Amino acid sequence: MSEIAARPATSTASRTELLMSLEPLLREWLPRQRWFAGKGRPVTELTLDSVSRLRPDDALLHLLLRAHQPPADEGPGDCYQLLIGTTDALPPHLAPAAIGHMTQGPLAGRTAYEALHDPRQTSVLLERLRLPGTLEGLRFQRAPYGRIPDDLAPHPLLAEQSNSSVVYGDALIAKVFRRVLPGTNPDLELPLALAREGCDRVPAPVAWYETADGETTLGVLQPYLKGAADGWDLALGHLAKQEDFTREAHELGRATAEVHTALARALPTVTYTRAQTERLAATMTDRLETTAQQVPALLPYVPRLRTAFEALADLAGEGRTWRAQRVHGDLHLGQCLRDPSGFWRLIDFEGEPSRPLAERRMPHPPHRDIAGMLRSFDYAARTHRPWNPAWSDSCRSAYCVGYAAGSGWDPRTDPVLLRAYETDKAVYEALYEARHRPDWLPVPMAALERLAESG
Predict the structure, then answer these.
(1) Which of 37, 152, 357, 399 has its CA 20 to 30 A from that of 47?
(2) Distance (Å, rounded) from C-alpha 201 to C-alpha 113?
(3) Looking at 35-44, 362-371, 425-434, which range is the least confident one?
(4) What is the pTM of this model?
(5) Which domain holds residue 79?
(6) pLDDT tens, 362-374?
(7) Distance separating alpha carbons of residues 447 and 294, to the nearest angstrom
(8) In what order do the strands lie in the sheet with 229-230?
(9) 202 with 255, same domain?
């Protein structure tokens, strides 16, 4: 297979000149994007880590752009991946993708726009992924798990949140990571490990790209599951029709167990000793108390919720240990797809995007993923009017039974660790909802009230 001819990355001077053209526009455009992590804080400075030209005449620019914001604007800032198209005249159908008309610097007189909305530009990205090799500051890699046809029409998925995706025909989907951090992204690392184990519960990567030094994952290409139904949408549909969802919940539990079992075979496991478990309990306690200062509605429940973490530390003090392994890290109904045959698959192994990459790659007992899915059933039930707690309870039970069928153990037999992880997840949810969706705050608060009473 031929390789892309290597070309040197653009110089620092070139980066500075390009930023003259783009900076005034990006300063306004960037904070409006759904995937921008620093909402509510002004952008004090933009700097370019790298620029790669994917087409001649600066028609398609790949940027790693760093946004500096208070209160830590003396630090490195958050790094974002952008694909910017430039043109003399923007076609009407690309008007929603416009970033703005440049009036200074080397690109003066041209219009910049979000290139992931342009099929001509995303076809270039697919072509680069088809041919492994290095291009300026980027390295493109292939995996032996699929082919890349050359006649696939691209179209963007507009519903993305923390990243952006482009579907090619009905065959492939490319995920472009927006906020990037040094290290291998788990959404590449874990599916590759599962593919090597022959686990078909997770789509195997076909190709990916990264910085030329291999230190930062930038995007991954995987099979597109045509006709697959999102688990969240399925659950809401069953609720709306007042239909039972326990069969699906059971099969989801089995699928989760199969993925966990394969991950434990593929990657190293560790044992949570007394010191590690006490450290985990202390971290959860600190998160609870810090969150309560930001979400005042949580304050009355703090003493009783703290007992979930104290009980975990006490159990560790009595000599109890747990096996920890790599897990999904952000498992919920929206991360599960059921294909037309009824087979469930898990997707989006990136973990919780707001947490540091090193933290997302840490091993945890499987209870962390299980708690996330149990919370998701609760979320679904709470969206229905009137609230249907029996629906959630039956799904939670069926999921655990399905997990036991796939793994040989029922997570409910370890209630202390499961309660600790579920409490910690609900605390995380409370902070997220308070910041981003205040109308949803009653959902995690109801769970926290229940968890406080169970102590």
Answers:
(1) 357
(2) 37
(3) 35-44
(4) 0.91
(5) 10-115
(6) 999 999 999 999 9
(7) 18
(8) 229-230, 336-338, 344-346
(9) no
